[in-house]
Amino acid sequence: MKELLCPDAALRLIFDHAPALGAETVPLAQAVDRVLAAEVRARDALPPFDNSAMDGFALRAADIKDASPDHPVELTVRETIRAGETGRIEVKTGEAVRIMTGAPLPRGADSVVMVEMTEPGSRGAVRMAKATRSGSHVRVRGEDVQEGSLLLDRGALLCPYDVALLAAQGITEVSVIRRPRVAVLATGDELVDYRDEPAAGRIRNSNGPALQAALSRWGVPVENLGIAPDKPDALRAVLSSALAQADVLVVSGGVSVGDFDCTKSVFAELGVREVFWKVAIKPGKPLLFGVYEAPGARPKLAFGLPGNPIAALVCLEEFVRPALESLQGYAPKHPSYHLTGTALNDYPKPEDRRQYLFCRAEPASGGYELTILRPQGSAMLGMASRANALAVAPSGVSRIVRGDALKFRWLK
Ligand code: AMP
Ligand code: MG
């Protein structure tokens, strides 16, 4: 019997074959979750000019250095500066200017006192009952970003905060690692399109829509190639044109040991070199991974997922998603099991395999409690849909026992 590969080793082999793709230029509005292919430097200082951090009064701190509740100081209010305007006058001793958040600090002033800290004085003046520090509530030009400084390095994964920074600099497009193109194909003589009525013995293709849904959620362009029968000639035709187009091929079904399973042999005929087949996981054991190296082209990744719908999706999330992240130029963030919960029930598992367990997770005092749904099954769509969490039980353990701590992630 073929030795099962441990899942961590399988992931390492995948990463060995998934270096970052090339670069493309995209508008800033499409740059979130992308990786910079080149560093970006600051065109402008941020803030671009000294401005008020508060709604209040701009003044000279020295004028109110002796102000106290017993001896308030009154300043003449000369004008109001709204955000977007610039002040007309220079603030002189004994004067203040009403100023709104974001408005440029007027000449002569060195600080701002919040409106809440002031009271109206006599004849339109403002009364201050407390001293302030020079520079208070002033956002100084360049205090955040200096002109010419490094804003974001090559390899940075852009989040909305980065988009804000780039937008504030007037940067309208960026060079980023391109997204992989993924082609999805379901194989199986029994399959009909999910919009069609299955004849006796046949079932609807649920993997196609499910895999496409997950990939679109991850922002990856997907081409859904529909259904191919378990006929080597037909499969070869679809897969050879897919290999020419896509960076990553995701085929479900036909990777087990059934008489008509032909994905594996067709991959081989087309020149896909098998990197591994069969991983020590449940569900998902028959997972196949190979690489297609056409002369002069960059290598393509080919995944053969088990046909069983739950196994196919688990493999996509656990193995294909990290590959896609690596191709996009960043250290994979998935799969990630940051949360820990306490099992509320026992569940037997194969000792030599890692098992992914569909659970109902509920918050409980200081943590989470996990009810492992029973029975688990790689074709049990209703069961998986009822779950809200996926827990992972390590190999080397033959039974999860009530009270065990399990790592899990949310499914919903
Ligand atoms: P296979 O991996 O081809 O042996 O398929 C294993 C099981 O998954 C069989 O019961 C198939 O009918 C089922 N299956 C395969 N492909 C799909 C699909 N695209 N949608 C739903 N079920 C499938
Ligand atoms: Mg099949």
Q: Approximately what portion of the residues adopt beta-strand conformation?
A: 25-35%
Q: Low-confidence stretches at least 5 residues in length (pLDDT < 50)? A: none
Level-1 CATH class name of the largest domain: Alpha Beta
Number of strands: 28
Distance between the termini: 37 Å
Largest sheet: 6 strands, mixed
**What number of domains?**
4
In what order do the strands lie side by side in the largest sheet? 7-4-6-5-9-8
> So, CATH architecture of the largest domain?
3-Layer(aba) Sandwich
Mean residue pLDDT: 97
General description of the model:
The chain has 412 residues and is an alpha/beta fold. The chain folds into four domains: 7-21 and 179-327, Molybdenum Cofactor Biosythetic Enzyme, Chain A, CATH 3.40.980; 23-46 and 143-177, Molybdopterin biosynthesis moea protein, domain 2 (Alpha-Beta Complex); 51-139, Molybdopterin biosynthesis moea protein, domain 3 (Molybdopterin biosynthesis moeA protein, domain 3); 339-410, Beta-clip (Beta Barrel), CATH 2.40.340.10. 19% of the residues lie in helices and 30% in strands. The chain contains seven helices and 28 strands. It has helices spanning 7-16, 160-168, 207-217, 232-245, 263-270, 309-327, 381-386; strands at 23-27, 40-41, 51-52, 56-59, 73-81, 95-99, 111-114, 118-120, 126-128, 138-139, 150-152, 173-177, 182-187, 191-192, 203-204, 222-228, 248-252, 272-277, 281-282, 288-292, 300-305, 339-343, 347-348, 354-364, 367-372, 389-393, 399-400, 405-410. The strands form eight sheets. It has a six-stranded mixed β-sheet with strand order 7-4-6-5-9-8, with no helix packed on it. A six-stranded mixed β-sheet has the order 16-13-17-21-20-18, with helices on both faces. Strand 20 (288-292) and strand 21 form a beta hairpin. The protein is elongated. The mean pLDDT is 97. Magnesium ion binds next to loops.
